[in-house]
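Sample log: Phosphatidylglycerol--prolipoprotein diacylglyceryl transferase.
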Amino acid sequence: MMNAALSVVASIPSPTVSYIDLGPLRIHFYALCIIAGIVIAVLLTNHRLTKRGAEPWVVIDIALLAVPLAIIAARIYHVATHPGFYFGEGADFWAVFRIWEGGIAIYGALIGGAVGAWLGCRWTGIRFWSFADALAPGLLLAQAIGRFGNWFNQELFGLPTDLPWGLEIDPANSAFPAGLAPDTLFHPTFLYEVLWNGLGVLFLLWVGRRFTLQWGRLFALYLVWYSAGRILWESIRIDPSEIYLGLRTNVWAAIAGVVLGLVIFFVQKRRHPGLEPSPYVSGREWSPEGAVQSAEDFVDTSAPPSAGADTQDATSALPTK
């Protein structure tokens, strides 16, 4: 009895509200968490990309394509992997479009976001892998922030537990498993993922700086880190999911994420042993207004041919693009 009381005292409460009303406008905390994550990811990516020599805020141009496609694909992925929620007898088809109620999948977002980022990079001249590496820590941080939306919605929790950090769920919540006692506590998988992702952000920032990982290799490590953790947290979640060969859909997606990350890392390491010459593709480089544009600005073009050696030295002093 004392142990049960201690568990309840030390448990993690769930928020009693998931939205606020401002006049006729209803604002869901889930949406605010997603938006906050996107904003922070954009800010951090902009900082990292401009340090490499990219035009300040070029990330906004890329995000204008990547973010909408990521959200659309994330919703499509969720609906496709949870068809029973939206189709068939007794299902509410129009719930497909009520994204503010929850239900977006990160692996769908990665697919849609990658397509949008590739298009945005083609538009701006930024190398796709340069952008992906700059994005990796911010993306993981955004995912950590977004998980608090699941906490507000009281969704995607794990198996019952008697651990002191068990999560309280309102028994009236539609996600509360039938047949369990109202005071049952559950694994706070949202918190596990927040902590794992937060640690991953620090790891990516450190390893990227320590080993100067470029050509998509830092993004590859992001895929491995996030997906490895997702395999664990997904395995203890009890929300409905399609099962294939004994594993939940997202466990298979996470396994694929680990494999893809490893493939990208080693393939890119073999193909590009050196450093990226510039965050821009050749011929699309950007320079601040008034900055030196070419080697001729450093070279006295009136010098006789014998000055070729000096010309070579001056040219080699330029930053590689």
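Observation: The longest strand covers residues 19-22.
Observation: Confidence is low (pLDDT under 50) at residues 1-8, 290-321.
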